[in-house]
């Protein structure tokens, strides 16, 4: 399962304001690619991320395709209130495993974030909203470097006690490697009973797809990717792009792992986003073209 996070994680890192109309158009196009989950925006403080100050309008005006969920990132109770007003049905909460990144990003300690999330999850459950508990900087931090797996496990346990529906581990600054992914996925999966694990892997150091493969081998089936490989956190120095959606789908389809995503359409979408952004974006398959057997399978 591919979760498209470009409209949130990709756009939030773009310096020039992308007109709301264009955001909506891209989300609507993504809805027609076979992708079933799109992280469409975030209800964070508009001064923290001016690019996504139009979250309410985006959520209100996108064409909701049946069978597709439109998710929003939530940092605190206020964000949840705003999301509920827009009828958001799927939210992603984020707290960092690294104390310094959480302070920089959310202006709160990890404990303060988790305390707020107890109320956020209660509000979600009362309103039949599905909640993903996200752990940022789970695989390393630009301020602290190595992040102890115990910190990640602690946050996962807290989320589980709140009753979230899914856990997501984020490699916010692209420091994960396949061995670390294997270890942290095993540690996390041993705690999850009956709820899925999702991974959010950045490609900052070119290790994104290797990390996807390592996680696949551990049984992870939900992966974030971003249109054209846009992305990054403005509050984490050095953070850059996600894995491009076309690159990930191309690898998976070549391997015979089917995602239901229409690869040529995603490539078209990436090209349009590149034109919109007005500079080269990281996706590689959009430049090279799809692997032939990613499109039609291997010859018999
Ligand atoms: N949306 C809009 N306004 C919000 C808000 C939200 N989610 N959360 C708080 N506010 C408002 C409050 O209502 C308050 O307004 P007031 O002064 O008119 O009463 C004001 O902001 C200050 O509230 P406070 O709780 O002290 O927030 P803060 O200034 O410490 O900011 C966050 C905390 C979490 C809202 C902010 O740091 C943030 O949005 N961070 C997200 C960064 C991000 O998106 N990073 C990338 C994705 S991981
Ligand atoms: Zn990210």
Topology:
Layout: E1 2-4, H1 6-10, H2 20-31, E2 37-42, H3 55-61, E3 69-74, H4 77-85, E4 90-96, H5 99-106, H6 110-126, E5 130-136, H7 149-162, E6 166-171, H8 178-189, E7 197-201, H9 208-217, E8 222-225, H10 245-254, H11 263-277, H12 285-288, H13 292-296
Parallel strand pairs: 1-2, 1-8, 2-3, 3-4, 4-5, 5-6, 6-7, 7-8
Helix pairs in contact: 2-11, 6-7, 8-9, 10-11
The chain binds coenzyme A and zinc ion.
Overall description:
It is a single chain. This protein is of the alpha/beta class. It is built from 13 helices and 8 strands. Strands 1-2-3-4-5-6-7-8 form an 8-stranded parallel barrel, surrounded by 9 helices. Helix 6 runs parallel beside helix 7, helix 8 packs parallel to helix 9 and helix 10 packs antiparallel against helix 11. The longest helix is centred in the middle third of the chain and has 17 residues, at 110-126. The model has no long low-confidence stretch (mean pLDDT 97). The protein binds coenzyme A (COA) and zinc ion.
Distinctive features:
binds zinc ion; 300 residues; binds coenzyme A; alpha/beta; single chain; eight-stranded parallel beta barrel; 13 helices
Provide a short characterization of the protein structure:
By secondary structure, the chain is an alpha/beta fold. It has helices at residues 6-10, 20-31, 55-61, 77-85, 99-106, 110-126, 149-162, 178-189, 208-217, 245-254, 263-277, 285-288, 292-296; strands spanning 2-4, 37-42, 69-74, 90-96, 130-136, 166-171, 197-201, 222-225. It is built from 13 helices and 8 strands.
């Amino acid at each position: 399962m591919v979760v498209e996070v470009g409209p949130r994680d990709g756009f939030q890192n773009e310096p020039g304001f992308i007109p709301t109309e264009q955001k909506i158009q891209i989300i609507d196009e993504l809805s027609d690619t076979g992708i079933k989950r799109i992280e469409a925006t975030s209800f964070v403080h508009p001064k923290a991320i001016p690019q996504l100050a139009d979250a309410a309008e985006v959520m209100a005006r996108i064409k909701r395709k049946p069978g597709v969920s439109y998710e929003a990132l939530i940092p605190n109770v206020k964000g949840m209130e705003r999301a509920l007003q827009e009828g958001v049905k799927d939210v992603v909460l984020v707290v960092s495993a690294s104390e310094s990144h959480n302070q920089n990003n959310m202006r709160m300690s990890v404990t303060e974030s988790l305390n707020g999330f107890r109320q956020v999850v209660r509000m979600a459950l009362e309103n039949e909203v599905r909640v993903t508990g996200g752990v940022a900087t789970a695989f390393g931090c630009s301020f602290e470097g190595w992040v102890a797996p115990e910190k990640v496990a602690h946050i996962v346990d807290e989320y589980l006690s709140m009753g979230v529906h899914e856990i997501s581990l984020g490699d916010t600054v692209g420091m994960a490697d396949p061995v670390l992914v294997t270890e942290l996925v095993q540690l996390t999966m041993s705690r999850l009973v009956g709820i899925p694990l999702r991974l959010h892997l950045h490609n900052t150091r070119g290790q994104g797809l290797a990390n996807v493969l390592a996680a696949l081998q551990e049984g992870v089936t939900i992966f974030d990717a971003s249109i054209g490989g846009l992305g990054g956190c403005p509050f984490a120095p050095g953070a850059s792009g996600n894995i491009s959606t076309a690159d990930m789908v191309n690898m998976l389809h070549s391997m015979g792992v089917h995602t239901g995503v229409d690869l040529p359409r995603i490539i078209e979408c990436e090209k349009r986003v590149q034109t919109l952004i007005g500079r080269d974006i990281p996706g590689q398959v959009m430049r090279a073209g799809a692997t032939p057997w990613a499109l039609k399978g291997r010859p018999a």
